[in-house]
Amino acid sequence: MKVLFLTLANINSIEERSIYSDLLRKFRDEGHEVVTLSPQERKFKKNTSLIRENGSRILKVWTTNIQKTNILEKFISTLIIEFLFMGAIDKYFYNEKFDLILYSTPPITLTRLISKIKTRTSAKTYLLLKDIFPQNAVDLNMFSRNSLLYKYFRNKEKSLYEISDHIGCMSEYNKKYVLANNPGLSDSKVEVNPNSIFLLPYSDEFKSKLNCVDFLPKDKIIFAYGGNLGKPQGVDFLLDIIRVSKANTKAFFVIIGSGTESHRIYSWFKKNKPENALFIEHLPQVEYNSLLGSCDVGLVFLNPAFTIPNYPSRILDYMNNKMPILFGVDKNTDVGIEAEQGNYGLSCENGDLTTFINFINCLSNDKELRIRMGNNGYKRLTKDFNIDNTFNLILNHFSKV
């Protein structure tokens, strides 16, 4: 098949490691031709350009800033990106026929573009639902359900679901939420298709080779947070945990990430100078993987205000490194519930400092528990979050294309 993938993710090569690049690489490796449209945000000061790889093409489309920018520019970018993508498609791929269109949320504003290509080429469509917008913006008080913005984006969301032949949700709670809040949506087109990755090779010898990060203390249990630092993560709770954990002489925290709240993290570290924590604003993927190989426990946080069931993909790298995971999340997600059921993590609500500190103390003092939970997480990753599963779920729908 010829596959078109539309995304807001910054993809420069499908050889990179991410839930999207891994899936595109899987399609390529199985003999399918892959074309990707990815933003070239103005902050990088580059024009639209076409990248050719073996069996793959990536069109980097010039856009205004979308990721890790102010709310106003993010909304403007969300509104105009469809027109920018549409112009790029017409210029570079107008005469090409696609068999399958893959796209992820965000954004939800590509309906006309997808409909146009679908009609022109008779392509089938599959939505990878990674974000439920605009309700998540309402949860974070960006605008109200009575606003014109909400009504506009809500109509876009409904249209996107309608134009999609199939919708892959990240979890059972995710699927149930989508069906419950979209009564006209056919149950037959919605399925659970979790975040997934290619597994990196793992062995105790492999981890010991990675365990070479010389700026982390060797005599501490390292609790690592890696990923976006924004309002969706509820990062105040993370800072409270570091502050209160000073009494635990075994625990050390390392935060790797950037986002709209990273300046607050930086300011807090500069002011408080915590001896039990380190903040790294950015690391290349290879170095990030190496750092995780030197850590013991992964951390996941979600804003407690969320009414939608998020399922952060950062857990996959933790699980690949056989790290138990601690969750400080909202009460509507099932990511922590599944971790406790699978005995690869512990979960409480974001803001429950007493319970979370007890988790920290427990894992700091129990090496056997850390090993057991880490092994359980790796088994769950291998079984349910392997890229082969996502690929096969999608391909099963389109095997007759």
Structure description:
- The protein is of the alpha/beta class.
- The protein has 15 helices and 14 strands.
- It has 2 domains: 2-196 and 386-398, 3-Layer(aba) Sandwich (Rossmann fold); 204-384, Glycogen Phosphorylase B (Rossmann fold).
- It has helices at 19-29, 71-93, 111-121, 135-139, 148-163, 172-180, 204-210, 236-244, 262-272, 285-292, 315-320, 335-341, 353-365, 367-384, 387-398; strands spanning 2-6, 33-41, 49-53, 56-63, 100-105, 124-129, 166-169, 190-192, 221-226, 251-256, 277-280, 297-301, 325-329, 345-349.
- The strands form 2 sheets. It has an 8-stranded mixed beta sheet, sandwiched between helices. A 6-stranded parallel beta sheet has the order 11-10-9-12-13-14, with helices on both faces.
- Strand 13, helix 12 (335-341) and strand 14 form a beta-alpha-beta unit.
- Helix 1 crosses helix 15.
- It is globular, with a radius of gyration of 21 Å.
